[in-house]
Each structure stands twice: as C-alpha cells, then as structure tokens.
C-alpha cells in the first residue's frame, strides 16, 4: 500500500473516493455497493417499480442514462416479473448525438436489452439542428418539449408502464433553484411520478440521490466510462450557470444539493392540498393531455410555423 | 509532476508533494467537476501526489 493513498473506512483497500458530507473514504468495491444500495433504496422507498412493470429507460448513451440502465439491469433480479427496455431519441445534433447513439446500441446489445430508437426527423419532420436555426438561445426549452414528447411516444409504442430517466442529484438540485428563480411554484412541487392521473406513463428518477461525480466514478470503476462530447447547445442554457453555482456551493458546503432537495420536499408537504392543480384537458390539435387549449408541442409547432 | 488535462494539455506542477484537491484548486478546477487518476487508478481528493507521478484529470461532461 502506498503511504500517500488514504484507506477505505470499511476495509484495508486503497480509497478511490472521499465522501465529504459523511467524512468517509471508500474503496472501489464498497463505493460500487454503496451506489447500488442507494439506488435500490430510492426505488423501494418511493415505490418507483412494482411487479409486472415494463420499465422503459430513456437511454441517450451519455453517462447518466448508461449508469441508469446498468444499475437497473444489475438490480433487476430483485424484482419479480419486471422487464427493462431502452428508448433512444435521436434529436439530430450533428457532431454530438451520433457517438452517444452508437454507445447506446452497443450497451443494449451487450446487456441483451430490447432497444427502440426514435428520431426528431421521423416524428417532427426535421432534425433539432434545422428546427433551431436562428433560435439557438431557446435550444434547451425547445429540445426539452420535443424530447419529452418523443420519449412518451417511444414508451407508448414499447408498451411501457414506467419511464425511467437518468436525472441525477445535480440535475434535480439545479431544477429546484431554476424553478425558484422563475417563480414557478407549480413546477417546483409537481411530481411526475405521482401526478400522472392515469393519463401519462409515470416518470421515475432512480438516480435522483446520486451525484454527477458519483455516476462518473461508478462508470469508471465498472469499465464503462467513455469520454463523450457535451451537447453543443448547453452554452446557451441557464442550467449551465446554475450548475456552476451549485457545484461551487456543494464544494464549500458539502450537502448543499441534498438540502435543496429536502427544501423542495418540505415545500411539497406544505403545499399539499392547498395548491390548485391545473385541470387536465385534451389538446385541441393532437388530443394529448394538457392543461390548456393546446399542448406544449402543438403550441411550439404553431410558434415555429410548422 | 506531469498533469494531463481533459483537453490533452500537459502541465508541469512543481509544488509537490501536494494533495489532489490542492493541485486542482491551484488550476482553478472545482474538484467536484472532475475525476482524477494515476496509472489508471482513481484517486480520492486527499491522496498526496509525488514528484514522479503522472496524473490525469477527466472533466465530467454534463448531460446524458
């Protein structure tokens, strides 16, 4: 053992991570077990997956969705009659998406998981690059709306009962702060797992208590880490600024992201029953459930002149 | 000590021995946004780096 390498708090192996908020070192084996336990615990305590579920994993091929598929595949024997499928959305982002789509295909082949792909071009008539021409600063909001629709269509075609996404703790903490910045209390307390009202496929986020760094570490320890490019449109996103800010706070004050999530949960509890939930209608154009006269996709199509 | 950054840029870091965390901060890098390895082995932030070491810094891309 090298004298300059800290030792795992649970055994005598060299540590590969230091969990700052717990003041604990972990070796590769204990870190992997810790991540798997926490994901299983999140799924169990929030009753994300039940018997006979057909879980569609939104698999972009990037790090978070890769880790999600691997973890669910690893945990699968724990649940009875549960089946995993993967859905990849190809938005059509030149120089970025091709590599992650290839990565998704390789992973599903290796794990023997049914894989469905759906593209913006097939669904909306154009690639994201074409749709965004001249509107690059709105990239994330436009892509977010279309991507969500594409995933729902893919999940419906695959007969899924749940849609699992790779949102991690960093993503979730960023969303809390962004919703506060926007004054959007409805969105802050919305829970897509519970608020499906039987009209949507419920969305679950099993990685919501695992940080981005922990996900990258998990992939590297399991020899599936690949250095992939970052979406070229992220430079326009408010999220990028919020990410950097929260990351700085988390470094100086370990536990900040978890505290943000606890704040959200407290607000949810205080608001329970007092928030007037938006009545669900059917979109006048496409018939999808929505809160207004038109769903977000049809509103967007209208504004894009499509 | 040789420091290999995500963009393949190589820097020589001379204030050693020093912990990973200190090296990152001196490079203006938040330790939560990267992974650090030595000879292919992951390192915790308080591992002390020596003069002979070659350390690789991998930036964690957002998204996916």
Textual characterization of the structure:
The complex is a heterodimer of chains A (306) and B (64). Chain A is built from 12 helices and 9 strands. Chain A has helices spanning 28-45, 63-75, 97-111, 120-124, 128-131, 139-157, 169-181, 185-189, 212-221, 238-252, 256-271, 296-304, and strands spanning 17-19, 24-26, 54-58, 83-90, 114-119, 162-164, 203-204, 281-282, 289-290. The radius of gyration of chain A is 20 Å and the shape is globular. By secondary structure, chain B is mainly beta. Chain B has one domain (2-59): Beta-grasp domain (Ubiquitin-like (UB roll), Roll), CATH 3.10.20. Helix content of chain B is 11%, strand content 36%. Chain B has a 5-stranded mixed beta sheet, with no helix packed on it. In chain B, strands 3-6 form a two-stranded antiparallel sheet. Chain B is globular and about 35 Å long. The N and C termini of chain B lie far apart (33 Å). The mean pLDDT of chain B is 90. Classes of the chains: A alpha/beta (306), B mainly beta (64). Chain A binds chain B through residues 4-6, 14-18, 25, 28, 60-66, 100, 166, 211-213, 216-217, 220-221, 227-231, 234, 240, 243, 247-248, 250-251, and chain B through 6, 17, 30-33, 35, 37, 41-50, 58, 60-64.
């Amino acid at each position: 053992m090298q004298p300059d390498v800290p030792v795992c708090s649970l055994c005598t192996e060299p540590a590969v991570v230091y969990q700052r908020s717990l003041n604990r070192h972990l070796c590769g084996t204990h870190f992997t077990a810790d991540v798997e336990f926490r994901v299983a615990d999140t799924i169990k305590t929030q009753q994300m997956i039940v018997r006979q579920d057909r879980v569609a994993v939104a698999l972009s091929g990037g790090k978070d969705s890769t880790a999600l598929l691997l973890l669910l595949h690893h945990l699968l024997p724990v649940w009875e009659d549960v089946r995993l499928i993967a859905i990849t959305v190809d938005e059509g982002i030149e120089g970025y998406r091709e590599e992650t789509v290839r990565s998704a295909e390789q992973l599903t082949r290796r794990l023997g998981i049914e894989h469905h792909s759906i593209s913006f071009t097939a669904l909306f008539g154009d690639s994201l690059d074409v749709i965004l021409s001249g509107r690059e600063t709105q990239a994330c909001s436009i892509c977010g709306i279309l991507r969500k629709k594409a995933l729902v269509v893919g999940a419906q075609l695959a007969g899924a009962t749940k849609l699992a996404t790779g949102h991690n703790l960093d993503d979730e903490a960023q969303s809390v702060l962004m919703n506060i910045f926007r004054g959007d209390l409805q969105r802050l307390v919305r829970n897509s797992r519970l608020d499906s009202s039987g009209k949507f496929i419920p969305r679950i986020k099993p990685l919501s208590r695992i940080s981005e760094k922990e996900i990258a570490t998990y992939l590297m320890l399991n020899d599936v880490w690949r250095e992939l490019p970052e979406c070229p449109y992220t430079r326009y996103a408010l999220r990028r600024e919020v990410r950097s800010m929260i990351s700085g706070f988390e470094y100086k004050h370990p536990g900040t992201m978890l505290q943000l999530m606890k704040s959200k949960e407290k607000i949810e509890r205080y608001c329970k029953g007092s928030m007037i939930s938006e009545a669900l209608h059917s979109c006048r154009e496409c018939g999808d459930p929505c809160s207004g006269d038109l769903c977000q996709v049809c509103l967007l199509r209208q504004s894009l002149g499509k | 000590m040789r420091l290999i950054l995500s963009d393949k840029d190589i820097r020589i870091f001379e204030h050693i021995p020093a912990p990973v965390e200190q090296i990152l901060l001196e490079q203006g890098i938040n330790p939560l946004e990267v992974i650090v390895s030595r000879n292919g082995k992951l390192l915790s932030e308080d591992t002390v780096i020596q003069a002979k070491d070659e350390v690789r810094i991998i930036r964690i891309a957002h998204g996916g």
